[in-house]
Amino acid sequence: MDKAIKKLRKKYIISASLISFSVILLMLILLNVITFIVFRSSNRNAHEVIQQAAHSYDYNTETFLLSEMEKNKDGDYIIPRSVDSIDSVTLSGVITSRNTAQGWYSAGGGLMFRLAVDGTEKFAYREYTFNKNTSEVTIDFNDDSTLRFEKYALLNESGVTDDNFLVSIVWWTSSDNNSKDDISLKLDSVTIHYNADFTKRNIMQMSYQNLFKNDIPTVLNETSSFFMVSDKNRYPIAVCSGNLTTHLQEQEVTEIMSTLSESDGTVKINSSVSYQYLISEKNGIIVYSFIQNSSANKNSTQVLVISAILGIVIFIVLFGIIVFVSGKIVAPISDGFEKQKQFISNAGHELKTPITVISATTDLIERKHGNDRLLDTIKAQSDKMGNLVSELLELSRLSEINENKSQLSHFSVSDIVNNTILYFESRAFEEQHELEMDIDDRLTMYGDSRKIERLMGILLDNALKYADAQSKIRITLSEQKGYIILTCSNRCTEINREHLSHLFERFYRAEESHSNKKEGFGLGLSIAQAITELHKGEISVSLNDNIVIFKIHLPK
User: Does residue 190 contact residue 178 with C-beta atoms inside 8 Å?
Assistant: First the structure.
């Protein structure tokens, strides 16, 4: 019974631990899922911010601050754009005069570039003029009347190429009193207005400052991001390096564009860092936004590690509490079983004396006065009571589990089974049952041979009691994976499957009523279970096509 209590406590610990583990695991999963959703939402917001701003940008206009442009040896600003795709250029600047009394004054310069005329490369330019109170001047590249040419020799000297044009600040100045030295012109920026043919353009280089006017959203500062823009034919129009450490060059943009699919996905930049990209198309413009949230990935990993460590700590604490509480829970049950066992032991020993006296007195009266029907009844009932007390005491002793080591030895379990079957052969013959055996004759084990003999006797006695009339009883003994496997099966149409789980309970009888049709007290299978557990084995029962099968696993 102590083993049953230990099993009960073990089941409670396992069940409570599994429930605790499941709850903790579920909480950890939910926590990490929520964290993942938050980070994913942050990435999604970053994508939406980039795409919304990128779609609202005018890609037919590009502004260059001259303070950021390179100069050639003559001091002209180099604008790295081809004039082939330009409709017009707007120059922004300030013209001033030190002589405030002047009624009018002006100054001018030119835009210099290569131009192919009748198959010949020429050095061309277009002049611009700033007058008093003028801050912007637009040069129309479609108006050939503003086009001028210079000597071809100046092409190589100026540094102008097919992919750039030059901005000269001041060529001339003029005023109403011809005080040219009083006039100064400072150009601030050059704004290019492109035509609709993207294929003739250089890829536009942008920054978040251009896109958000120095008011960059916080969500972009938390990620590594950039975007690219193309036309509907996937020809690259612009690239914004965002908060990358280096600017993406045209060749890199072309290579990245060639690796992108037509749907959202991921791509590796510089063959190392993976970026998630989303594609959005609007009015013939396609925006590719790229996000790599390293801080989110790092935080997600930290949350996973911390939550796992915290979950383990909580589970260990809960497991300790469960073990402690389980001891408190089974303590009353253990005490109750101990008291029950002590009562059975005490009552059994107290009953043995009067039963012995009754039996002896009955024998004495029978010798003096002869056989009598009443005396036979008293004797039969006293014998029955004596058997009950003996079985109760036997079960009580087996429940204590403290096996006497001196009774343990190596023995032939095959011989024990064969001899026990031999004892029951005459009874089986009288009750018209056939015993069928399949016994491996070479099996030995370590244990108490007398108890194993008792176990085999209980199984055969039970089979003979409850087997259908003139049916076969089958006994097998074999070895499987280091275990002795003993089975005893018989046909029994009276038993239902619902009875199986109760067969090893004390005083349980499978028939509908506790009649005297079959002798016994319902303790035999309880004793068989106790003997099996004493040898660290397992006993089970199953029902298949009205065949009851008792199966015992015993370690060798």
Answer: no
Q: Which CATH superfamily is domain 408-555 in?
A: Histidine kinase-like ATPase, C-terminal domain (3.30.565.10)
Short-list 534, 529, 535, CA closest to 556? 535
Condensed to tens digits (0 to 9), the pLDDT of residues 427-445 reads 899 999 999 999 998 899 9
Which comes out higher in pLDDT, residue 123 or 334? 123
Please tell me the total number of residues recorded for the chain in this structure. Answer: 556
Mean pLDDT of 179-203: 86
The pLDDT, as a whole number, for residue 549 is 92
Local structure of residue 249 (DSSP, 8 states): P
User: Exposure of 432 by Cβ count < 10 A (0-12 exposed, 13-18 middle, 19+ buried)?
Assistant: exposed
- On the question of pLDDT at 513 being above 50, the answer is no
Q: How much is the average pLDDT of 322-346?
A: 74
Query: Confidence class of residue 291 from pLDDT cuts 50, 70 and 90?
Result: confident
Residue 332 pLDDT exceeds 60: yes
pLDDT-based confidence at 106, cuts 50/70/90? very high
CATH of 204-292, one of 3.30.9, 3.40.50, 1.10.10, 3.30.450: 3.30.450
Phi, psi angles (nearest 5°) of residue 151: -65, 145
Strand (E) positions, 450-546?
472-480, 483-491, 538-544
What does pLDDT average to over the chain?
83
Share of the chain above pLDDT 90, in %: 24
Q: Is 174 exposed, middle or buried (0-12, 13-18, 19+ CB in 10 A)?
A: middle
Separation between Cα atoms, residue 113 and residue 226, nearest integer Å: 32
Q: Are strands 136-140 and 120-131 parallel, antiparallel or unpaired?
A: unpaired
Crossing angle of helices 373-399 and 294-369, rounded to 10°: 150
Helix segments in 286-412, DSSP class H: 294-369, 373-399
**Cα–Cα distance between 520 and 517 in angstroms, integer?**
10
pLDDT computed for residue 516 by the predictor: 47
| Range in 13-17, 48-52, 74-78, 496-500 with the lowest mean pLDDT | 496-500
Q: Over range 478-489, report the average pLDDT.
A: 91
CB atoms within 10 A of CB 173: 20
Bridge partner list, 114: 123
Beta carbons within 8 Å of 177's beta carbon, 6+ residues apart: 99, 102
- pLDDT band of residue 102 (cuts 50, 70, 90) is confident
With beta carbons less than 8 A apart as the criterion, state whether 66 and 187 touch: yes
Q: What are the residues facing 138 on neighbouring strands?
A: 90
Please compute Rg for the chain using Cα positions: 51
Cα–Cα separations (whole angstroms), residue 242 to 22, 47, 212, 239: 45, 12, 11, 9
**Which tokens in the block code for residue 125?**
């330019």
In the Cβ-directed half-sphere of 389, how many Cα atoms lie within 13 Å? 18
Count the neighbouring beta carbons within 10 Å of the beta carbon of residue 531: 26
DSSP 408-424: -EEEEHHHHHHHHHHHH
| Residue in 544, 487, 492 with CA at minimum distance from that of residue 518 | 492
Q: Where are the domains of the chain?
A: 63-195, 204-292, 408-555
